[in-house]
Design brief:
Blueprint lengths: L21 H25 L11 H14 L1 H33 L1 H14 L8 H8 L3 H25 L3 H9 L4 H39 L4 H10 L3 H29 L6
Helix pairs in contact: 2-10, 3-4, 3-6, 3-8, 3-9, 5-6, 6-8, 7-8, 8-9, 8-10, 9-10
């Protein structure tokens, strides 16, 4: 008996698994894009398309970076900036997370605090540097506070928005099972709002990097911000770019770390 129109199993094309997973391809593209930009910059500098007095070639900046690393000054300044960024992020993110989730769960608290946040958030954070220096002095507290205030607002706003976006049925189920405030916070509100919270943390760290550089320029004698300000005063253009590259690298690595943290905490979003 002949089987018309049917192919034998051996004749069917076999689907091969891709050599690279989607996650790996995304990583490669994310790393390759800045590399391509640096290559275009290098070519433009070597061919005279851009003025190397103001835009030195990446190879010259890298050479200067190696010199500063060997002298230990870049390592010291970067470490101090990282410490201030870490403690400022922690100081701003934890209260912002708690307050934002509480605002999302409690309508009365939200009505009380939303006008204050709406009034304070648009104020340029760089404009309060003199006041912060007046209150906290030139020590570490002023730098940490500047980072904290930059991180606090994106986290509190995103945490509140994330909780308000949770389907009401989950909160109703928690109430029906007599879940207390802590259980509701920990098992419903925090996991449900986590994707939006991570966006707020990412935005907060970016703002914190901007503010720590400003704070170190105006009220410090060390750190990457001070290094760039000192380089500007002496017209050491390559040193300025070294500081900019170091801050950009911190932001890039922070983003990669947060992406990996998201994959660890929320694997269902990346399936």
């Amino acid at each position: 008996m002949s089987s018309i129109g049917l192919e034998p199993a051996s004749a069917r094309p076999v689907k091969r698994a891709p050599l690279l997973s989607n996650h790996t391809r995304e990583r490669i593209i994310g790393i390759a894009s800045p590399v391509v930009l640096l290559m275009l910059w290098e070519i433009s500098a070597r061919t005279g398309v851009i003025d190397v007095r103001f835009f030195p070639a990446p190879s010259a900046i890298l050479s200067r970076m190696v010199s500063l690393l060997r002298s230990g000054s870049l390592e010291r300044d970067t470490w101090l900036t990282l410490q201030r960024l870490f403690w400022g992020t922690l100081t701003g993110a934890v209260p912002g997370l708690v307050l934002g989730i509480a605002m999302g769960l409690n309508r009365t608290l939200r009505i009380m605090t939303e006008p204050l946040i709406a009034a304070i958030y648009p104020v340029p954070k760089s404009s309060i540097v003199p006041l912060v220096l007046l209150i906290f002095g030139l020590g570490e507290s002023s730098k940490i506070f500047m980072v904290a205030i930059g991180v606090f607002f994106p986290v509190v706003i995103n945490a509140c928005t994330g909780v308000l976006g949770i389907d009401k049925i989950f909160l109703d189920v928690g109430r029906n099972y007599k879940a207390g405030r802590w259980n509701t916070f920990w098992t419903i509100a925090l996991p449900g709002a986590l994707p939006v919270i991570m966006t707020g943390v990412r935005l907060g760290i970016g703002m914190g990097l901007v503010l720590i550089a400003i704070a170190e320029m105006t009220g410090a004698r060390n750190g990457l911000g001070f290094m760039m300000w000192n380089a500007w005063q002496t017209f050491s253009v390559e040193d300025m770019y070294v500081g900019l590259f170091a801050i950009a690298l911190i932001g890039f690595v922070s983003t990669l770390a947060l992406n990996e943290l998201e994959r660890l905490l929320m694997p269902w979003r990346f399936n």
